[in-house]
Design brief:
Radius of gyration of chain B: 24 Å
Helix content of chain B: 10-25%
CATH superfamily of the largest domain in chain A: FAD/NAD(P)-binding domain
Helix content of chain A: 25-40%
Strand content of chain A: 15-25%
Structural class of chain B: alpha/beta
Number of domains of chain B: 3
Structural class of chain A: alpha/beta
Number of strands of chain B: 24
Radius of gyration of chain A: 32 Å
Largest sheet of chain A: 7 strands, mixed
CATH topology of the largest domain in chain B: FAD/NAD(P)-binding domain
Largest interface: A-B, 71 and 73 residues
Shape of chain B: globular
Distance between the termini of chain A: 31 Å
Number of helices of chain B: 10
Strand order of the largest sheet of chain B: 5-2-1-13-24
Number of strands of chain A: 27
CATH topology of the largest domain in chain A: FAD/NAD(P)-binding domain
Number of domains of chain A: 4
CATH architecture of the largest domain in chain B: 3-Layer(bba) Sandwich
Distance between the termini of chain B: 10 Å
Strand content of chain B: 15-25%
Oligomer: heterotrimer
CATH class of the largest domain in chain A: Alpha Beta
Number of helices of chain A: 17
């Protein structure tokens, strides 16, 4: 502390500047003594700042880290600048050193004088000058940095699963234990979803004491974030209930496209045209497929890829389902001739190959076409050799495409998560976070994500469960990102621009105060909202304009 | 920390890294064992990944960094598992950490040692399209960025002569030619096998000319040819002549018949190659000789449509097994039966074979060590109860990624997340059991 | 202008282009000493104030570089950056500042060579353009 002329008591900052030689990698090109002398010679530029400036062989080595730790403690450093390598290599190393002292890790800064000076600038004098510039920028910047503190949050480990089909039930079973309750919410009056057959998990879910099943119930409201959601449920008889949970898994399933949406398919109510899922259910329940007049069909055509063209994607499972059904019909009624009409056979994996073999062995006729159209009960087949053929069948089974369930849109709006170009829930990242959404704590399982097999649906469900099991551990707390954005109430006009650009839904409107507010538990600190603000009300912590301008000013000096 | 809270993940590709990151924490330690000197797996060999042509390095590098910097993950590169004993909750695993001869702590990756090394050998990581020294990192941007010495080729280590050049060049005293293999005994509660897969050995298909005709490429060779950090710095030039190709044929389903299954991703990577080619060489003509186009799921057909017609001509063949590639005076000829079964000819100067995804050569050995079943194709068998479980036939041992069968990156990550969840569940139920059962049947040591 | 050493600021996104700069560094590629790197988390963080103030503080050129479209670590931040730049370039015209002094480029983490090319090209361009009119017309 030192008394100043203004009468205010001001803290003297003690900034430690440590230059890593990195063997010859830095010291072999950059004249570190000159850099130190140059910076020291201008130390009166900084008001109320004492500079401690030293060089060391390898700061990232064990002894180097210990040296730095001792220096911070012995010199009572208030700020630290390490001039060394890329922050991608050792930022976390030196933050770790700070964490072992009283120095807040956000009052430290690494300067990359290796990848950006000694390794890329040919002339040693120029490299030396550049290094000094970078270091000055960081001294200036670090003085504008603020201490930031992690704020661990208590979490609720329970999970809500929306949808009681294969994916939803699998997720519930993968999660439930004495440590964690699962609320399984199903819109219809029974579990099982769209599979049309009794799922093996149904009994286990019903008997599981840690799974609470809500039938004929829908989610009506939701607020919160990973670890802390409040979810409103509404039952068909109008009863409201509120539950709390740490995560939400969307397993609402999907629908089938209307075959007649395709301009190439037309038939009337009285025609014997039955979509694949319906035929599967009938066969499962009745053991055979009869025509409406009760007689057995002599010829059946299963038409693949109906709706692929219109939807813009291959559902990936219809070939397998179609051939399985075709083979099953042949097995159950060998006198029925079954023809499968397809464009490409999409049968990945050994299982796919087995299905194809089974279909062939059971005597299913396979016809590849460039395109097929249906009028009434007559198929027009465009063959690969360029010819075309018209053929009539007693029964036609179109394999319709898998399309998003009707509830997808309203749920997405409620949860503030985006839809993809085909109307399914959009994943957080197609490759690295396919079960997550941009809203942390909301996950997608099964065909709510996109068309997929029952096996894949269950895997997605287990992946969602995996996220919950590893992130919401009973008794542990979660630590949100600290380098987040804040909104200064005095400048905020509540225009909502920031709200619109935030992909994480981290900003909400406080209508009472007429401003926008950042939920710091959700913000990831990209700063996109900052650039969208017309009134300068936002601050991106640790990357404020004020901090960045210090670097700019030193570079342009 | 006891074995009930430690986990061993074998294979540091995207599946192994994801599972490790999910599981590692103050209460759980993860050992991540990787056979190669670097982590990242196959994904980092691809400059861009389909379908959104995302830069793989941008996608994977933050994951690699997070793994290496995670205090709860002990990454053991250049290491191999030698034995696995015990049962769920109580496995004993021995791991051989091969002599690297370069200290992971002392080396800063400056690369001075490569320059002085007098020995050159093919760089297998770069599909042998380029050479490396006997002290090397497999590629630029390797993580960890610490070289390793090939002890069979190093002049000093193989006894040829007293070469000491790399040691002398190192300012960090990071090189120790006396280094030896170390054996590590680990106690872990569960294992995840994530050792990935291989592509079909194309030399087994002599009719397609791979190995005999320099213009015929494997998919991984082409990936590296396109990669901006690869052997040609991303320039697509023909092996031998160095010329830029004008006409390229991509032959689908190479090895499908032999393997007995469709790998499900080769159509997509073939279409990605079309994008690669048209991106770098706008005037190139590209032909896809295909049978069934397999582009399942919500993301892939769009990608197919974006190349079909404009960027590539799709040529249907009624029999992939009868496609034949031969050399001509000016390049290559691809003969194939067309839709009507009539043989058609195509003159090109480059052929890329879309090879099937097959079990890695070491998968069978790993399965034997781990005592887990393989499926009929030689991949590790999972989901024995049909529930999508990632547990293998041996309790406490899980798997993820293409070691379990061919799949895309998305499905690989989904499996890694599933497996991590199952391991976490197993661990917590064991901890729970210990708490509730103080009678001595504790799983904790 | 043989003695003109431009002052150029490069705002690089943490995830892609900063990584490319590291790769250029570890590949020991030659880069111009006039180019100063400032790391930001995402190209979408760059607002008009940061760009224009940097010009008014005396920069002769500004390069902003981030992940390729579709590759943004934060989903779609770089798309926002692209749109904002279209507007910024117009604003620069009205300030009699050549729009070529501002450049938005996509450089992925694997593209160390491309990073060096982009930086060298841009620096050459600014060398040819000469000092910023803001610097010459004010006391900066």
């Amino acid at each position: 502390m030192s008394e100043t002329g203004t009468g205010k008591t001001e803290m003297t900052a003690r900034v430690g500047v440590y230059l890593c030689e990195c063997g010859p990698n830095i010291a072999g090109k950059i004249d570190l003594d000159k850099v130190m002398a140059d910076i020291l010679s201008e130390s009166d530029r900084y008001r109320n700042v004492e500079l401690v400036i030293r060089r060391y062989g390898f700061l990232c080595s064990g002894p180097g880290k210990q040296y730095l730790e001792d220096e911070i403690k012995e010199n009572g450093l208030t700020h630290l600048v390490v001039a060394a390598c890329s922050p991608r290599d050792h930022d976390s190393t030196f933050m770790g050193v700070c964490a072992r002292t009283d120095l807040n890790p956000y009052l430290y800064r690494i300067v990359n004088i290796r990848e950006q000076c000694s390794w890329v600038i040919t002339d040693p004098e120029e490299a030396t000058e550049r290094a000094a510039t970078y270091i000055r920028g960081s001294i200036s910047r670090v003085l504008r940095q603020s201490s930031l503190f992690e704020k661990p949050l208590e979490i609720n480990p329970d999970a809500v699963v929306i949808g009681g089909g294969a994916a939803g039930m699998e997720a519930a079973l993968a999660l439930s234990s004495d440590l964690r309750r699962v609320f399984l919410v199903e819109k219809s009056a029974s579990l099982g979803g769209g599979c049309g057959i009794t799922m093996p998990q149904e009994k286990a879910v019903i008997e599981d004491p840690n799974v609470d099943i809500y039938l004929e119930t829908q989610m009506s409201s939701v607020i919160g974030f990973l670890g802390n959601f409040e979810i409103g449920l509404k039952s068909a008889d109008g009863k409201d209930e509120e539950i709390t949970a740490g995560a939400i898994i969307l397993a609402i399933g999907s629908d089938y496209s209307d075959p007649q949406e395709s301009g190439r398919i037309s038939f009337s109510e009285s025609d014997e045209v039955h979509i694949l899922a319906e035929a599967e259910r009938t066969l499962e329940a009745a053991g055979d497929l009869k025509l409406r007049d009760g007689t057995m069909p002599e010829t059946i055509a299963v038409v693949h890829c109906v709706g692929r063209e219109e939807q813009g994607y291959c559902s990936g499972v219809c070939c397998s389902s179609s051939l399985k059904l075709a083979a099953a019909i042949r097995r159950l009624s060998p006198e029925t001739a079954v023809t499968s009409v397809y464009r490409d056979l999409c049968l990945p994996g050994a299982d796919g190959e087995n299905v194809l073999r089974m279909a062939r062995e059971s005597g299913v006729e396979l016809i590849r076409t460039k395109g097929t159209s249906l009028s009434g009960m007559e198929l027009d087949l465009e063959k690969m050799d360029g010819t075309s053929e018209k053929r009539s069948f007693d029964m036609i089974i179109p394999a319709a495409a898998i399309v998003p369930a009707a509830d997808t849109v309203s749920l997405a709006e409620m949860l503030r998560i985006p839809l993809d170009e085909h109307g399914f829930f959009k994943e957080a990242h197609r490759m690295t976070d396919p079960a997550g959404t941009t809203t942390e704590g909301v996950f997608i399982a099964g065909t709510a994500h996109g068309p997929m097999s029952v096996m894949s649906s269950m895997r997605f469900a287990r992946a969602c469960a995996g996220q919950v099991l590893t992130r919401l551990v009973p008794g542990e707390r979660i630590v949100p990102e600290v380098k987040v954005t804040e909104i200064l109430e005095a400048y905020c006009t509540g225009c909502g621009n920031c709200l619109d650009v935030c992909v994480y839904g981290a900003i909400y409107a406080d209508t009472d105060r007429g401003i926008s507010v950042v939920n710091e538990a959700v913000c990831r600190g990209c700063g996109n909202c900052f650039a969208s603000c017309p009134s300068g009300a936002l601050r991106t912590r640790h990357f404020t304009n004020e901090q960045i301008f210090r670097e700019v000013d030193e570079a342009l000096r | 920390m006891t074995q009930a809270e430690s986990i061993l993940v074998i294979g540091a590709g995207i599946a192994g890294m994801k599972a490790s990151l999910m599981l590692a924490g103050p209460a759980r330690k993860v050992y991540l064992v990787e056979r190669l000197p670097i982590i990242g797996g196959k994904t980092i060999k691809n400059e861009e990944s389909f379908p959104n042509m995302e830069c793989s390095t941008c996608m994977v590098a933050p994951i690699q960094q997070a793994v290496l910097q995670n205090p709860h993950i002990e990454t053991l590169t250049y290491s191999a598992v030698e034995s696995i004993e015990g049962s769920a909750g109580d496995f004993s695993v021995s791991v051989r950490i091969k002599a690297r001869y370069v200290s992971l702590e002392a080396c800063i990756g400056c690369g001075m040692c490569f320059e002085v090394c007098p020995v050159t050998l093919p760089n297998e990581w770069e599909e042998s399209l380029i050479e490396k020294k006997a002290i090397y990192v497999p590629c630029s941007g390797s993580l960890p960025n610490v070289p390793v010495i090939d002890s069979e080729r190093c002049l000093k280590l193989n006894g040829t002569e007293e070469c000491n050049l790399c040691v002398e060049s190192c300012a960090f005293e990071a090189i120790n030619l006396e280094d030896e293999d170390r054996l590590l005994e680990l106690k872990v509660g569960a294992l995840i096998l994530a050792t990935g897969s291989e592509t079909f050995d194309l030399s087994a298909l002599p009719g397609l000319g791979y190995g005999a005709l320099p213009g015929v490429y494997s998919p991984m060779e082409f990936e590296r040819l396109f990669a901006s950090n690869g052997p040609t710095m991303g320039e697509i030039t023909l092996r031998g002549s160095g010329a830029v190709p004008d006409r390229v044929a991509i032959v689908h389903c190479a090895g499908r018949e032999e393997q007995g299954y469709c790998s499900g991703i080769c159509c997509m990577y073939s279409f990605k190659f079309v994008r690669f080619l048209k991106h770098k060489l706008p005037d190139v003509q590209v032909f896809n000789i295909h049978s069934d186009v397999c582009v399942p799921g919500k993301n892939y057909e769009d990608f197919f449509r974006s190349v079909n017609g404009g960027d590539t001509e799709m040529l249907f063949t009624s029999s992939i097994a009868d496609v034949h590639v031969s050399g001509t005076d000016s390049g290559l000829r691809v003969a194939y039966p067309d839709g009507g079964g009539v043989t058609a000819d195509l003159e090109v100067d480059m052929v890329i074979l879309a090879a099937a995804i097959i079990p890695a050569p070491l998968t069978a050995r790993l399965a034997e060590l781990a005592g887990v079943e393989l499926d009929d194709s030689g991949f590790i068998r999972t989901s024995l109860d049909g529930s999508g479980s990632m547990e293998t036939s041996r309790a406490g041992i899980f798997t993820a990624g293409t070691v379990e069968g061919p799949k895309d990156i998305q499905s690989t990550v989904i499996q890694a997340e599933s497996a991590a969840g199952q391991v976490a569940f197993l661990m917590s139920s064991m901890a729970d059991l210990t708490e509730r059962d103080p009678s001595g049947k504790s799983v904790k040591s | 202008m043989p003695d003109f050493h431009p002052r150029i600021i490069g705002f690089l996104c943490n995830w892609c282009t900063y990584a490319a700069a590291d790769l250029a560094g570890s590949s020991k590629l030659e880069l111009p000493p006039e180019f100063t790197v400032i790391r930001v988390m995402c190209s979408s963080r760059i607002d008009h104030n940061l760009i224009l103030s940097t010009f008014y503080r005396g920069a002769d050129g500004i390069l902003v570089a981030g992940c390729h479209p579709g590759d943004c670590h934060y989903g779609e931040g770089n798309y926002y950056a692209r749109r904002r730049f279209a507007l910024l370039k117009k604003v620069m015209e009205t300030l009699d500042l050549e729009p070529e002094r501002l450049e938005l480029r996509w450089v992925s983490a694997a593209e160390g060579n491309r990073y060096a090319e982009v930086v060298n090209e841009f620096t050459d361009r600014i060398r040819k353009l000469g000092p910023s009119p803001i610097r010459t017309s004010t006391r900066l």
